[in-house]
Amino acid sequence: MKSLWRDRETKEYPGDLGLRVYTSRLLGRNPSLVLHGGGNTSVKIRETNILGKEEDILYVKGSGWDLAIIEAAGFSPVRIPHLLELAKLETLSDPEMVNELKTNMTRAIAPAPSVETILHAILPYKYVDHTHADAVVTITNTPNGVERIQEIYGNRVVIIPYIMPGFDLARACAQRFAAEATEDTIGMVLMNHGIFSFGSTAKESYERMVQLVSRAEDYLHKHNAIPRTPNITQEEKPLRHSLATLRHQLSQIAGFPIILATHRTPKTLTFAQREDIGAISQQGPATPDHVIRTKRIPLLGRDINAYTAAYNDYFRAHASDGLTQLDPAPRVVLDPELGMCAVGKNAQQAAIVADIYGHTIDIISAATALDSYQALSAKDIFAVEYWDLEQAKLRKGGKPPVFTGEVALVTGAASGIGKACVTSLLQRGAAVVGLDINTEIETLYSRPDFCGITCDVTDENAILQALERAVEKFGGLDMLVLNAGIFPAGCSIAQLSNEDWRKVMSINLDANFTLMRECHPLLKLAPQGGRVVVIGSKNVPAPGPGAAAYSASKAALTQLVRVAALEWGKEGIRVNTIHPNAVFDTGVWTEEVLQARANHYGLTVEGYKTNNLLKVEVTSQAVGELAAEMCGSLFANTTAAQVPIDGGNERVI
């Protein structure tokens, strides 16, 4: 591990709290130290309050903040004298501790202080850093972990046996630190949990963390305990149906739709295919706080019923009266063919699970190479999994969006109506796959719940590859929005060539037929029923001259949708069509074209845009919103509908 401290950068972080922000971010940059809100840091500052009196204040990382991006507002200011008095109590319940911390903050809008606030307060150093360094956790998760830590650090650290985070840990640390710390002590190791460093300056505390973690890394290198992933050949075969089936089963067990993100990398496949996987993967998480993300152990293979029964037994064995069982669905699946699958209520949660278990694989592999991997007992892990303070972190955010855990695929998604559909679906919580022949689709959004794939929908092989990638990314398919199409220049039937006719049919009809056929097996497995929305056209009920190929293709597509509704209704799949007209905020309609068409009808551009009974402009956003709503509960009892969105067109009426 190398120090990332740069004197020139510190100028942007003035004051003690500014430097606390700076070194916290340095720690947060390194995922081998902290992941997704893990770890915490603090600084003790003397300040003058509104009454002109000086107070000693502990600024400690607030709950919910990530060290990698933390700001000054992410630190909770708590009065130190009160914290030190709390540390003298014999007992302090979790609700009492939370209340005492919150009511002794100096800023009402600050986040809730870390549950380790009292621990930070009792350590006699200005700056305190705490991480879950992979190297240190690896060593502590071995049978002789204490002896190894002593060998590595000597009197440079105080060693604390595992105690659940909170008040009891703070008291134990205070007592042990007072008894064992020497002038050489620069840190503290919490067995099966993590490591602390401290110092009189931000730089000193941070670089002591670098020094301590580097020693652990050197120890692992010395003992050849650094996992190395061999290059293995992945068998390329379709997995989308297997993955969608697995997702369907997991959603049934969980009681809600889930995202299933598959990671078939040399690392995950090698780990899942180990001969001893049944032993090493069933010990427990690398640190107990990971249990709220990953559950205690992963599912091996695909026997979900056996996993569920085992989880129910685990709950009954350790639960006290009045405790409500969480859903028994695994959050990690290890399979020799699939590698690692991460399960989450949404795409972001699945990504967090994947990150955490990716590091867990490294820790388990290294610990096994060093000696053997030995996690905490099931009882200790259960206490954290059902610890209300940890569960509260996952309950934040209120009611989830309506499409949380569901997956949508939109064609022609890079612009216009397709892009609007993507936006509307994302806003409702769906994970969205966007297909478009335009490569800009790949960078349309940079977020874990969107996957843009360049795809020519007239190429059947490209469609199959896109579906494989989509299901590998999110696990299945719940909603299909067929939007991709072309509107060629006006041409009479007498002048229409076979080539132009076939091109329009290929994109507007044939491609959608292929997509519907190939998506059907996936839509059948949608946990809450599959939904298809097809973007048709006003030209279906009211065609115009010069648009024979376009009108015929959209009419044939509409008829295809009606047949699909007849065939798929028994499988709970509903299929509906939207017929837009005069949607001008797309790339097809330039200012020049709009002006020319308006002139042709003797109208202003604005008059041309609103040339309908309601005198409204039909926008891509309006169509996207309707498409999303048709996938929702308002249309739960509707299939084979054809809904116009045209402001009222006399010819259609």
TrEMBL record:
Name of a matching Pfam family: Aldolase_II
Coiled coil: none
Protein's UniProt keywords contain Repeat: no
UniProt keyword terms in alphabetical order: Oxidoreductase
Start and end residues of each Class II aldolase/adducin N-terminal domain: 19-220
SUPFAM superfamilies from the UniProt entry: AraD/HMP-PK domain-like, NAD(P)-binding Rossmann-fold domains
Origin superkingdom: Bacteria
InterPro entries reported in the protein's UniProt record: Aldolase_II/adducin_N (IPR001303), Aldolase_II/adducin_N_sf (IPR036409), NAD(P)-bd_dom_sf (IPR036291), Sc_DH/Rdtase_CS (IPR020904), SDR_fam (IPR002347)
GO molecular function: oxidoreductase activity
The family this protein is said to belong to: Belongs to the short-chain dehydrogenases/reductases (SDR) family.
PANTHER family: DEHYDROGENASES, SHORT CHAIN (PTHR24321), SHORT-CHAIN TYPE DEHYDROGENASE_REDUCTASE BLR2146-RELATED (PTHR24321:SF14)
Protein name: Bifunctional aldolase/short-chain dehydrogenase
Species this chain originates from: Lusitaniella coriacea LEGE 07157
